[in-house]
Amino acid sequence: MKIKLAFLFATSIAIFSGCGSIATVSVAPGYRAKAQRVAVLPFDVIGNPDVAQNQTIADHLAAVLMDAGISVIDAQDIVYQAKSKGINLSRATSDDLARLAEPLHIDAVFLGSIQYGYHGPESGVRPIDIHENIDTVKGKVIVTKSVSGGGSYSESGGYFIQSISTRLVSVKTSETLVTGYVPGNYEDALLNEVRKKLLDNK
Fold first, then answer.
1. CB of 36 closer than 8 Å to CB of 26
2. Domain check: are 64 and 131 in the same one?
3. CATH number assigned to the domain comprising residue 178
4. What is residue 4's DSSP assignment?
5. Is the pTM of this model over 0.90?
6. Which has the closest alpha carbon to 27: 44, 8, 2, 6?
7. Residues 87 and 102 grouped into a single domain
8. Do residues 23 and 14 make contact, with C-beta atoms less than 8 angstroms apart?
9. What span, in angstroms and rounded, lies between the C-alpha atoms of 76 and 26?
10. What is the full per-residue pLDDT of the chain (202 aa) written as tens digits?
């Protein structure tokens, strides 16, 4: 069974976090989250070989949904059902989601992903800046110079979060009910916007 994307309103709202990040969330027409029981699966990690999944963001999203009055299934119940049915959560298909939903009476499932990038090590020599200060003291012009910068530097490489995205998929119809995206590591901006949009669609 393939996941079908429902038509989403073009009224996505972009919000800016304190650092200038933009989070965009769209909700399918007529969707009412409070009328359903939802589950939040661990977020898949892409581009970082050291990490496969992120449960922390999933837990944060679950807490945000519960604060908005939405019924959320405990994550441990999802993990237990997946193991008992031999389902790999990081590769769950829509058929797998339906199998998970049956014993837990789940209506929809939040899926998410975290995209990582990598920057290599850097080294070099910092440029030297010479600042000239001119002051007048008792009619005399005094010129002083200050020097800054210079010297070598070395920085190790590492992985960094490029973007975070999530979507809510109906177990019965496989339609996408909610989509969310934020560039950079601005989890709070994304989750707060998800909460706001769902509350707007009471």
1. no
2. no
3. 3.40.50.10610
4. B
5. no
6. 8
7. yes
8. yes
9. 28
10. 333 333 333 333 333 434 444 899 999 998 988 888 999 999 999 999 999 889 999 999 999 999 989 999 887 888 888 888 888 877 888 888 888 888 889 999 999 999 999 988 877 777 777 777 777 666 666 666 666 766 776 778 789 999 999 999 998 888 999 999 999 999 999 999 999 998 887 6
Three-state DSSP class for 104?
helix
How far apart (Å, rounded) are the C-alpha atoms in residues 59 and 8? Answer: 26
3-state DSSP assignment of residue 16: strand
Instruction: Return d(Cα 128, Cα 60) in angstroms, integer.
Output: 46
| Contact predicate 180/25, CB 8 Å | yes
Number of domains in the chain: 2
Whether the CB-CB separation of 160 and 117 falls below 8 Å is answered with yes
DSSP state of 127: P
